[in-house]
């Protein structure tokens, strides 16, 4: 099975038509099975040709590069396609914003998303949570980090909080829970520092890109998280050795898998059943699946979940919006109160949507 998976991953580099035939042979499928190759950065996995059903379009949250993320997911999604009896195509992008725009354009049917993006997909784009990831450490979440170089002068949390204007920041996009939301909420705003305005300069990118920026002296401090920094240590050991952790947050819930609510409940259930069983079996097949999971951000597997699993993400977004409104400058108190009322109303609406835990 391990040899099979290695061959499967290598097929990413093979032209579409050849890859289609090879995938069918590798998976032991009949000759009419082929790959679906999309456009606009979408690369397909296997599906049954001749069916009237369109591919289930799977969007991948960018963890490293777009190609790297797609390669990591390809083996699992090939098996998912077989389990649900439908083609599965892949949309792998370089930024949260690109994935968010694809979801808004209804170009994504299923996705791997962190808290804030999953929350928006469920409350605004008619999607439902079916599973939540579990990592190898067994913890119910991960922690946001601030990274800096070990060498002075810009290498202490006290120095950062006293003179942020001296520091160059590398951070995640605004939709990133550990790259922006949690550091802003739990560290910077309580110390009267707005990440977007108080630093000398800023770089916005993936966690891998921000860590590399600090290691290579292109920035002085970077937001990151425990899961991504573990992965970074393995892939860039020399660069990781130059870095230290200045601060870490409270636990943040893990990412979710969401599926479009317009799909029949039976299909969403098949997706959930497949994911929660993946990597649990004994023997060679289970071992091979666990190898795939380890390449996926060092995952241990998936747990069944519903919309209620996003309540912590909704609370974090609410707290950040409220704290930002409280610390911002307003033309008058009435304007501040109006903003706070909109925040309260929006949060109440989100909580109401998250109470829908139907299959």
Give an account of the 3D structure.
The strands form three sheets. A seven-stranded mixed sheet has the order 2-5-4-6-13-7-14, sandwiched between helices. Strands 10-9-11-8-12 form a five-stranded mixed sheet, sandwiched between helices. The protein has a two-stranded antiparallel ribbon with strand order 1-3. The chain is built from 15 helices and 14 strands. Helices cover 47% and strands 21% of the residues. The longest helix has 22 residues, at 333-354. The chain is globular. α3 runs antiparallel to α13 (283-295), α7 (177-188) packs across α14 (311-327) and α14 packs antiparallel against α15.
Secondary structure: elements and pairs:
Elements (H helix, E strand, L loop, with lengths): L1 H9 L5 H11 L6 E3 L6 E3 L1 E3 L7 E5 L5 H19 L3 E5 L3 H9 L5 E4 L1 H10 L2 E9 L5 E9 L7 H6 L5 E4 L5 H12 L6 H4 L2 E4 L2 H9 L5 E5 H10 L1 H4 L2 E11 L2 E5 L4 H13 L5 H13 L3 E6 L6 H17 L5 H22 L5
Parallel strand pairs: 4-5, 4-6, 9-10, 9-11
Antiparallel strand pairs: 1-3, 2-5, 6-13, 7-13, 7-14, 8-11, 8-12
Helix pairs in contact: 3-13, 7-14, 14-15
Our measurement of the CA-to-CA distance between the termini, rounded to an integer number of angstroms, reads 32 Å
Described by its quaternary structure, the protein is: single chain
Total number of beta strands: 14
Fraction in helix: 40-55%
Order of helices and strands, N to C? Answer: HHEEEEHEHEHEEHEHHEHEHHEEHHEHH
Q: Spans of 5+ residues with little confidence (pLDDT < 50)? A: 1-6, 8-52
Q: Compute the gyration radius: what is it?
A: 21 Å
Q: Can you list the strand order of the major beta sheet?
A: 2-5-4-6-13-7-14
> Which class of secondary structure composition applies to the elements?
alpha/beta
Total of helices: 15
What is the global morphology? globular
Give the biggest sheet. 7 strands, mixed
Q: Whole-number average pLDDT? A: 85
- Approximately what portion of the residues adopt beta-strand conformation? 15-25%
């Amino acid at each position: 099975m391990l040899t099979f998976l290695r061959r499967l991953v290598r097929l990413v580099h093979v032209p579409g038509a050849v890859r289609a035939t090879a995938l069918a042979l590798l998976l032991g499928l009949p000759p009419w099975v082929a790959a679906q190759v999309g456009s606009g950065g979408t690369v397909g996995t296997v599906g049954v040709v001749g069916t009237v059903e369109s591919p289930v379009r799977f969007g991948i949250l960018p963890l490293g590069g777009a190609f790297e993320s797609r390669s990591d997911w390809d083996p699992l999604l090939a098996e998912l396609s077989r389990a649900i009896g439908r083609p599965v195509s892949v949309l792998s992008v370089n930024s949260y914003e690109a994935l968010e725009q694809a979801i808004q354009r209804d170009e994504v049917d299923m996705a791997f998303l962190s808290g804030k993006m999953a929350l928006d997909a469920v409350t605004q784009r008619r999607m439902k949570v079916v599973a939540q990831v579990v990592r190898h450490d067994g913890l119910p979440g991960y922690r946001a980090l601030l990274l800096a170089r070990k060498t002075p002068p810009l290498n202490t949390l006290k120095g950062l909080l006293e003179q942020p204007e001296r520091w160059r920041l590398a951070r995640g996009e605004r939709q990133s829970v550990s790259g922006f939301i949690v550091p802003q909420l739990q560290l910077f705003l309580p110390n009267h520092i707005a990440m977007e305005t108080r630093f000398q300069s800023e770089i916005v990118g993936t966690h891998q890109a921000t860590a590399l920026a600090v290691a290579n002296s292109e920035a002085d401090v970077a937001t990151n998280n425990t899961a991504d920094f573990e992965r970074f240590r393995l892939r860039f050991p020399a660069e990781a050795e130059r870095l230290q952790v200045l601060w870490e947050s409270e636990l943040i819930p893990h990412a979710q898998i969401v599926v479009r609510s317009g799909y029949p409940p039976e299909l969403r259930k098949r997706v959930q059943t497949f994911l929660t069983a993946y990597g649990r079996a004994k023997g060679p097949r289970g071992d091979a699946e666990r190898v795939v999971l380890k390449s996926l951000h060092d995952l241990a597997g998936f747990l069944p979940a519903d919309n209620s699993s996003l309540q912590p993400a909704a609370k974090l977004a609410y707290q950040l919006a409220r704290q930002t409104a409280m610390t911002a400058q307003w033309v008058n108190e009435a304007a501040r109160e109006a903003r706070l009322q909109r925040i309260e109303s929006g949060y109440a609406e989100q909580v109401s949507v998250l109470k829908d835990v139907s299959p």
